Amino acid sequence: MNVITIEDYKSTYWPKLDGAIDQLLTQSPGDYIPISYEQIYSCVYKCVCQQHSEQMYSDLIKKITNHLERVSKELQASPPDLYIERFNIALGQYMGALQSIVPLFIYMNKFYIETKLNRDLKDDLIKLFTEHVAEKHIYSLMPLLLEAQSTPFQVTPSTMANIVKGLYTLRPEWVQMAPTLFSKFIPNILPPAVESELSEYAAEDQKLQRELIQNGFTRGDQSRKRAGDELAYNSSSACASSRGYR
What we know:
Layout: H1 6-26, H2 37-49, H3 53-76, H4 80-104, H5 106-117, H6 121-149, H7 157-170, H8 179-183, H9 198-214, H10 222-243
GO molecular function: protein kinase binding; ubiquitin protein ligase binding
Subunit structure: Interacts with CDK2.
Pfam families: Cullin (PF00888)
């Protein structure tokens, strides 16, 4: 293998990695990314073998940090009615990118990060999102999530589930900010239910059913009735499940 000087790394090898990372960080689900994974994998391997792991790791962290700071600023400029959905997109896009970025840098992870830093690349990159995006937005995001939870159909269940599960992955202690909300999507996080609370649970179920009817699930429309029955059943099942661990 030819010697790769630091000048070679900066002028030839890192620019290839930089461009590939850019594309991976900004891709949307289903996008075709015109990069050669084999070529990028080979670049990383050669740089690790030539003792450029420390510089490459530093460049990677700086690159992704700059990207996440831009993402955070874009979220800050989002209007409230789009804030939840845009946070969901940013979270999903980043986690999707990591599924490609982490394997491409597997040699750097194995022979530098794990052995010399005693850490893991994926953990480090998830931590970057926590620090540069989630931490900066959690106190704006959580009230909107709680409001959306109390307003049926304001946010799709899949979006709500993705965000809540994502926040729990980033920082489990955020459960304490809204334990009831998290318990709807994360099992076993609440203490067991007690008998004195059963009447409160029944009242919550009745309130939900009234809200469903008020939002169009009337008895006169059989197709909506079936949809309403299904939603009520799923909601009751979710409540029953969470109550078992309150």
